[in-house]
Amino acid sequence: MTSIQTIDDLDARQRLLVRIDVNAPVEDGVVQDDRRFARHAETIRELLDDDHAVALLAHQGRPGRDTFVSLEHHADILADHLDHEVDFVADTCGESALAAIDALEPGDVLLLENVRMCDGELPEEDPDAKAQTELVRTLAPTFDAYVDDAYSTAHRSHASIVGFPRVMDAYAGRVMVEEYTANTAIRERSFDGTVTLVLGGTKAEDAIPVIERVDDTVDRFCLGGIVGELFLRADGYDVGYDVEGTSLFDHQWDDHRQTIERVLEAYGDRLSLPTDLAYEDDGSRAETSVEGVTKEMSFLDVGSETAASYADLVSDSAAVFVKGALGVFEDERFADGTVTVLSAIADTDCFSVVGGGDTAHAIELYGLDEGDFSRVSVAGGAYVRALTGERLVGVEVLEREQ
Questions:
Q1: Sign of the C-alpha dihedral, residues 232, 236, 237, 238?
Q2: Which residues are paired to 26 by β-bridges?
Q3: What is the rounded distance in angstroms from the CA atom of residue 344 to the CA atom of residue 346?
Q4: Which of 1, 115, 174, 338 would bridge with 43, disulfide CB 3.0–4.6 Å?
Q5: According to the model, what pLDDT value does residue 374 have?
Q6: Does 63 sit behind a cis peptide bond, omega within 30 degrees of 0 on the bond before it?
Q7: Structural contact between residues 82 and 33, judged by C-beta atoms closer than 8 angstroms
Q8: Which segments are annotated as binding site?
Q9: Residues with Cβ < 8 Å from 109, sequence gap 6 or more?
Q10: Identical fold at 2-178 and 184-388?
Q11: What pLDDT, on the 0 to 100 scale, is given for residue 1?
């Protein structure tokens, strides 16, 4: 039997290395979304209350991309959420970092530089190999324990995620525990009533495995977004392909056509597909039935009839899980499908988890209350893997024999 130690198991006044995930959209070097900061601030605040000295490891972007920047600005944002000073050092495991770590006192918080700037953090390798990287070998001896609060990176076998638990005492933070518990509920909990999964977004390769792997626990699926259009195409409608200016449909259709058609045949009676779609017409929202339509423009949302139908389905559910948006909700004209369904979930007394990509952002953007959902997940890839029951290496390395 295995178990995971949490921060409840820590002795007070320790020097802790804490992995968080504050990776965020960045424009012109400025962070555009601070939701992850707010979540991790709760864990850090709790650690400070127990007089721990905290050094934080995090990443931003990936080498070669515009979002691959220093974490100096991140320290300021985190300090605002904590209402507590967060020191920053432009180094991760060199002399400057080690000096800053050595100077840590109980109640101090230090953010180390972007861990992906370190050789050995990437690529993904076996945890034992990652434990031998310079990052782990240098930092591990300077701390009493390691805390992983970065659930959204739990599917990555990177040094800062899987290396440290191999060589030192390791614990799960609050975000790690809460996200994992909520996101695995679709497979691990029994619900007294219908379980509905709302699937949208842009990636068929994410949606298809979810449908096939949770068929024994989910009663019905409501499809939208590009995923919904691709399934409509498989069902014989003249939608789900690229028009001028788009490149999202045809390559996914070519890659996944056989699987989509197989899933549609196997689960057709449990799949709810859009009956109408919305598009832009002279600057305004317009809608059309999928019956008899010929695709000549981009469809940007499910239509009002579909949104109302999906809202009725989730309102009659004991549990609802959401992965991906039903439309381009960032444009208010095409937010109706996503917001209508989210509002129905919020008004329903059901167990609910919303996540996948930027879907959770719609809750904040349109003034919904996170408290009306059982969990609003800020994880992407890890959320999808939890839904499908795939292994999360970042969780596995925290497990220990009882």
A1: positive
A2: 31
A3: 5
A4: 174
A5: 96
A6: no
A7: no
A8: 21-23, 36, 59-62, 116, 156, 330, 356-359
A9: 44, 48, 54, 55, 56, 78, 82, 84, 85, 86, 87
A10: yes
A11: 34
pTM: 0.90
pLDDT at 360: 83
Q: Which amino acid type is present at position 235?
A: D
CATH topology of domain 2-178: Rossmann fold (3.40.50)
- Tens-digit pLDDT profile for residues 10-31: 999 999 999 999 999 999 889 9
**271-280 as b/e: b if 16+ CB within 10 A:** bbbbebbbbb
Provide CATH code, domain 184-388.
3.40.50.1260
- Domain definitions of the chain by residue range: 2-178, 184-388
Euclidean distance between the first and the last CA atom of the chain, given in angstroms as a whole number:
6
pLDDT tens sequence across 272-324 = 999 999 999 999 999 999 999 999 999 999 999 999 999 999 999 999 999 99
The alpha carbons of the chain give a radius of gyration, in whole angstroms, of 22
Instruction: Write out the H or E segment, with its range, that includes residue 142.
Output: none
Residue positions forming the annotated binding site for ATP: 330, 356-359
User: What are the structure tokens assigned to 48, written together?
Assistant: 């400070």
User: Would you list which residues are annotated within the binding site for substrate?
Assistant: 21-23, 36, 59-62, 116, 156
* 329-359 as b/e: b if 16+ CB within 10 A: beeebbbbbbbbbbbbbbebebbbbbbbbbb
Residue 314 φ/ψ, nearest 5 degrees: -70, -30
Distance of alpha carbon 382 from alpha carbon 360, whole angstroms: 14
Which residue(s) pair with 170 in the sheet? Answer: 146
Pairwise CA distance, residues 321 & 353, whole Å: 5
Distance (Å, whole) CA 38 – CA 80? 9
- Please enumerate, by residue number, every residue annotated as part of a binding site for (2R)-3-phosphoglycerate: 36, 116, 156
